[in-house]
Amino acid sequence: MRRHAEARRGLHFFPPDTDDPDPRFTLANERTFLSWSRTALALIAGGIAIEAFATGVFPTEYRRPLAVGLFLLGSAISLGSAVRWYLVERAIREDRPLPKPLLIPFLAIAGAATGAVLTWLFFVDS
After folding, report:
1. At CA 17, angle to CA 12 and CA 23, rounded to 5?
2. Are the beta carbons of 39 and 77 closer than 8 angstroms?
């Protein structure tokens, strides 16, 4: 018992007076974080692919901003998912309502904007 208490004295993400939640909730929160991380990595990989392999498809003045936009979107989602994981975990531990998911509208708006730009580049500007 004492060893467990000493192990909890290490790195503190949460106040030490909070209870450990049901592991299923913590693991579900972690899986959600990992899903957002995969999405962020896919967007960053998409930016790399556009910059590296789309030289014949897009002129440089379109390709670079699109790639940078995907890099920034992936970075923002990565950071936002870490903040979301922390806020949800803390709410679970303190038995409070879960925070509103701000990443979802952000990703939806950014995805729609990216789709509109790609549609314009492929069909209107050709």
Report:
1. 75
2. yes
Instruction: State the burial class of residue 92 (Cβ atoms within 10 Å of its Cβ: 0-12, 13-18, 19+).
Output: buried
Global pTM reads 0.75
Whole-angstrom Cα distance, residue 15 to residue 21?
A: 13
Helices (H) and strands (E) in the chain, counts: 4, 0
Burial class (CB in 10 A: 0-12, 13-18, 19+), 69: middle
Helices (H), 9-59: 23-53
Q: What is the pLDDT of residues 60-69, one digit of tens each?
A: 888 888 899 8
pLDDT 10s digits, 19-38: 778 889 989 999 999 999 99
Give the separation between CA 122 and CA 4, rounded to whole angstroms: 59
C-alpha span between 39 and 114 (Å, rounded) = 15
Q: Any idea of the CA torsion for 57, 123, 112, 37, to the nearest 10 degrees?
A: -20
List of residues 6+ apart from 35 with CB closer than 8 A: none
